[in-house]
Amino acid sequence: MSMACNLCFSLHLFLLLVLAIFVQLGTSGSKVEVLPGFEGPLPFELETGYVGLGETDDDMQVFYYFVKSENNPQKDPLILWLTGGPSCSSFTGLAFQIGPFAFKIEEYDGSIPKLILRPQSWTKVSSIIFVDLPFGSGFSYAKNLTAQRSDWKLVHHTHQFLRKWLIDHPEFISNEFYMGADSYSGIPTPAVVQEISNGNEIGLQPHINLQGYLLGNPTTTRKEKNDQIPFAHGMGLISDELYASLQRNCKGEYTNVDSINELCLRDLNYFDKCLLGINMYNILDRYCEDDSPKKHESLWRRSLNQKFEDSLNSHLRVPDTRCQIYGFFLATKWANDESVQKSLHIREGTIDKWERCYTSDFKHQISSSFEFHVNLSVKGYHSLIYSGDHDAVVPFMSTEAWIRALNYSIVEDWRPWLVEGQVAGYTRSYSNKMTFATVKV
To answer: What is the pLDDT of residue 317?
Structure first.
């Protein structure tokens, strides 16, 4: 092992030992009986609270939402969910993706936005912790926010949070545990899983019953744009001639293009113009300017752009109700309401304004999560990697490529999977206990 590898291993071990020292009781959780905007008592069990991190609990306080399984919480799996961004609260997962409630999309009239039940909630079969990390998102707070915003800080904070949360919830220590995440969190989450595994191996307490992880449309190599070009061609968004020219002039490399390669840059500029009116997150969905990533910014970034944040915070305009971002607008109105914060047991004066995402000063330290998938495969953890089949930001082709690069044999070949007798996507399983699936959207 090289000196550099020895140094990395020693540093990692040191961080785990530091974590062991700081895992102390410092959590507070309260049951939420009612939520403003929802009619009647909640038909599911919701707890919110804070977990203190750092040398003293006053340094950093992580806010979380915990929904117990609606089936059998004593035996069902426990999931910790991280939303992408890289700077978004996992309230996104709770209210817009896999949680038990959603916002009713209707024109905002100044009253508290209404909530409705989501019948497809993952809490039908699992208990889920939705956590406000990284710091600066949601209701979490810290003395020095800027110092806490990076890939590796997010990894360590998530790991530390989980062990402290389990100390305060010992009834869930024996439950099978899975990490879950989407989008940009495909970068830090495999590192979180590896750190949890390493912590178990050196005897950190409580022992976490880690079984695996699941990732949706995960950023992995940061070179997803290389697969956006063939994806766009296959979906009929660019012409055969432009695709052939891009292949010829760029030679398959569409990121970090040398400025002297004028022909490639010309083709890429034309490509961007062709996709200006396309919702990159779902090419079949309605295009709304604020839903789509700016073409001159990295396309894997799934946070709100600054232009929209400025308008949202200053109340200058309201998004079109037909746009996905309208739901985010409703969430901001809802979460900043005094009665909502009282129901959620938010500590007064801890944040100035609730923001689903923040858009600055996050340090990108992990260039690729591929090596963590390699390590976790060797350790035998289960994994489910799934892709929306019309997502152009992290195309399914990109995800398939790095899965193939793991070089494990196929144990169950490509086949459709069904919901109520209808094809809902396609799936394939590998000998490293990894399953890949596409989802029709």
So the answer is: 67
Q: Tell me if 3-216 shares its fold with 370-439.
A: yes
**Residue 188, number of CB atoms within 10 A of its CB:** 30
Residues in the chain with pLDDT values less than 50: 1-11, 13-25, 292-316
Model pLDDT, residue 293: 44
Q: Is the dihedral of CA 116, 321, 318, 358 positive or negative?
A: positive
| Ordered alpha helix ranges (H), 134-261 | 151-168, 189-201, 225-234, 240-250
If one looks up domain 370-439 in CATH, what number appears?
3.40.50.11320
Q: Does CATH number 1.10.150.40 belong to domain 3-216?
A: no
pLDDT at 291: 58
The domains of the chain are located at 3-216, 225-299, 370-439
Cα 2 to Cα 5, 7, 8, distances in angstroms = 5, 9, 10
Our separate counts of H helices and E strands in the chain read 12, 14
The Cα–Cα gap between 62 and 373 comes to 27
pLDDT at 255: 86
pTM of the predicted structure, to 2 decimals: 0.88
**Residue 200 burial by Cβ neighbours in a 10 Å radius (0-12, 13-18, 19+):** middle
